[in-house]
Write a structure and sequence with these properties.
InterPro entries: Peptidase_M14 (IPR000834). There is one protein chain. This protein folds into two domains: 2-94, Metallocarboxypeptidase-like (Alpha-Beta Plaits); 110-233 and 289-453, 3-Layer(aba) Sandwich (Aminopeptidase), CATH 3.40.630.10. The protein has 14 helices and 14 strands. It has helices at residues 2-19, 35-41, 66-75, 87-90, 119-131, 167-170, 188-204, 209-217, 228-236, 297-308, 344-358, 368-371, 379-384, 426-449, and strands at 21-28, 46-51, 56-62, 78-84, 139-146, 152-158, 175-180, 218-223, 316-326, 328-331, 364-367, 389-398, 406-408, 411-412. The strands form three sheets. The chain has an eight-stranded mixed sheet, with helices on both faces. The chain has a four-stranded antiparallel sheet with strand order 2-3-1-4. A hairpin with a 5-residue loop joins strand 5 and strand 6. The longest helix has 24 residues, at 426-449. Residues 2-18, 166-171 and 406-410 have low confidence and may be disordered.
C-alpha cells in the first residue's frame, strides 16, 4: 500500500514536471537570427514574440529545457528573466472570467462583440443571424466541415442583391472575399475582431456608401472560429494553447505531456509544406506541421472551400487572415526571403497607403518572412496561389514595450505580460481599425478592377 502511494506521488510529480512551462523574456546583445538554431536545438520551445530590431524574444520554455536554454543564452551574450513561472498555476488568474450577460434578440447588438464568445454561444449567435428579421435576408450559413471533436466549421456569408447600373456589370459575376480568425487557439482577439467585422458589414449596409459599393461587387465570407477545439481547450485548460486537438503519433501512446497532442493549423496548408524551419516535424512542438499536408480536417475544409467555390459560385479574390499579435500587416511569401509574389509591389503600396490613412501608421507592412520569420505551410501562402490579394493582419498589442517590459535594465515592469492575454475591451478598438482597413482595401480594388473597366 505504501509502495503504491509512493509510486502515485512520483507519477504526479513527474507529470507536473513534464507539463510545467515558464515564459521567458530573452534579449541578446547584438542583432542576429538565432531562431533557426534555437528551433533545431530546442524543438519544443514555443516562440511567443520576436523583435529582430531589438534582438529580443519571448519564449514558452518547457521545464526540461530550462538549464540548457539558459546556458545557450549566456553563451551568446544574452540575458533572460522569467516573466511567469509555473505557467499552469500562474496563468489561472488570466483564465476566462466571463461577466454574466444575456444575449440580445438583436443579432447586431454590441454585446456579441464585447465578449469572447464560447463555441456554443457563437453557434447560437449564428442561428440568430440566420433567423432574425434584421439579418436573415443577407445571411447564409455554410458548414464546410467538422473538427476532430466534432464541432462544426461555420462560415457566414454576407450577400446582397443590389441591381446593377451598367450592362457590363450585369454580365459580370461578383467576386468573393474570405476572412478568418481563431486559427491559433490562444489568439482570442482574432475571433472577436472577426465577429466585429461581420456585424459592421451588416450594420452599415444600408447607409454607408463604401460598404454598399463593396457588397454590390463582393460576397463576404467569414469563418470567425477556425480552430474551435483548440479554442475551447484554451478556455478551460491552458490559456496559451496554440494547436488544434487532434491526436498525433506520439499522443496515441504517450498522453502524459499535453503538448504532444494537436497540430499547428498554420503550418499544415498544402503549399510549400515543411519546406523551411519554423515548421516543426516534432509532434510535441507547438508549431508541429502535421503528418502530411492538409492532414487536419480544419485545413482541408478551408482548402476545399477556397478551391471549389461550392457555396459562392464566384471566384475568391481576397483573403484576410486575422492573428494576434504585434500589429503587423503581413504579405506573402512566408516560406521564402528570396522570392516575392508577382504583384508584391502593388500589395505593398496599397497596404502602406491604407495603414497610413486608417491605422495612423501603427502597423508595420511588409513580407511576412522579413517582418517576423520564415515558416512554411501557411494559409496566406496557399491563398496567394489562388487569388491576387492574400494577407495576414496581426492585431494588438504592438511589440513596442512588449516584450521589453522595461525602459532600462534597471526599470522593470513586473506586471507586463504577453499579448495573447488582451481583454475583450480591445475587440472594438482593434475591430474598428481592421474593419476600416478592409473596407478601404476592397474599395480600392473596386476602383481598379471594376470601375476602370466601365470607363
Amino acid at each position: 500500500m505504501v509502495h503504491n502511494i509512493q509510486l502515485f506521488l512520483f507519477f504526479v510529480v513527474f507529470l507536473n514536471y513534464l507539463q510545467a512551462e515558464e515564459i521567458w523574456f530573452v534579449k541578446f546583445s547584438y542583432k542576429h537570427n538565432y531562431l533557426s538554431r534555437i528551433e533545431k536545438t530546442f524543438p519544443l520551445i514555443d516562440l511567443l514574440q520576436y523583435d529582430y530590431d531589438q534582438s529580443s524574444c519571448i519564449f514558452l520554455v518547457p521545464q526540461n529545457y530550462l538549464l540548457n536554454f539558459a546556458r545557450f543564452i549566456q553563451q551568446h551574450n544574452g540575458f533572460y528573466r522569467i516573466m511567469l513561472d509555473n505557467t499552469k498555476d500562474t496563468l489561472k488568474k488570466f483564465q476566462l472570467r466571463s461577466k454574466r450577460w444575456t444575449p440580445s434578440d438583436n443579432p447586431l447588438d454590441k454585446t456579441f462583440y464585447q465578449h469572447f464568445l464560447s463555441y456554443d454561444e457563437q453557434q447560437n449567435w449564428y442561428s440568430l443571424l440566420a433567423n432574425s428579421s434584421l439579418t436573415k435576408k443577407f445571411i447564409r450559413l455554410h458548414t464546410i466541415g467538422y473538427t476532430y471533436e466534432n464541432r462544426s466549421l461555420t462560415v457566414v456569408q454576407i450577400h446582397s442583391k443590389y441591381r446593377r447600373r451598367y450592362k457590363q456589370q450585369q454580365q459580370r459575376r461578383k467576386l468573393s472575399v474570405f476572412i478568418d480568425g481563431g486559427m491559433h487557439a490562444r489568439e482570442w482577439l482574432s475571433i472577436g475582431v472577426a465577429n466585429f467585422v461581420l456585424i459592421q458589414f451588416l450594420t452599415l449596409k444600408e447607409n454607408n456608401l463604401k460598404v454598399q459599393r463593396i457588397l454590390r461587387h463582393f460576397d463576404i465570407f467569414v469563418l470567425s472560429m477556425m480552430n474551435p477545439d483548440g479554442y475551447e481547450y484554451s478556455r478551460t485548460h491552458n490559456r496559451l494553447w496554440r494547436k488544434n486537438r487532434s491526436p498525433t503519433i506520439v499522443s496515441d501512446y504517450w498522453d502524459i505531456d499535453e503538448s504532444c497532442c494537436g497540430v499547428d493549423l498554420n503550418r499544415n496548408f498544402p503549399y510549400q509544406w515543411d519546406s523551411i524551419y519554423g515548421s516543426s516535424n516534432h509532434p510535441c512542438s507547438h508549431s508541429y506541421r502535421g503528418s502530411h499536408p492538409s492532414s487536419e480536417s480544419e485545413v482541408q475544409s478551408v482548402v476545399n472551400f477556397l478551391q471549389t467555390n461550392t457555396y459562392s459560385r464566384n471566384k475568391f479574390y481576397a483573403y484576410f487572415n486575422l492573428h494576434a499579435y504585434g500589429r503587423f500587416w503581413l504579405l506573402p511569401w512566408t516560406y521564402s526571403t528570396l522570392n516575392k509574389v508577382q504583384n508584391y509591389e502593388d500589395l505593398l503600396k496599397r497596404c502602406n497607403q491604407i495603414a497610413s490613412n486608417v491605422m495612423n501608421q501603427t502597423y508595420k507592412v511588409g513580407q511576412a518572412s522579413f517582418l517576423l520569420y520564415p515558416c512554411s505551410g501557411t494559409s496566406i501562402d496557399f491563398a496567394a496561389t489562388l487569388m491576387p490579394h492574400s494577407m495576414t493582419l496581426e492585431l494588438s498589442p504592438t511589440f513596442k514595450g512588449l516584450p521589453m517590459c522595461f525602459e532600462t535594465n534597471q526599470t522593470v515592469d513586473h506586471n507586463c505580460t504577453v499579448g495573447f492575454l488582451a481583454g475583450p475591451e480591445v475587440i472594438e478598438i482593434d475591430g474598428t481599425e481592421v474593419f476600416n482597413a478592409i473596407v478601404e482595401y476592397l474599395d480600392s480594388i473596386i476602383q481598379d478592377y471594376f470601375l476602370s473597366r466601365n470607363t
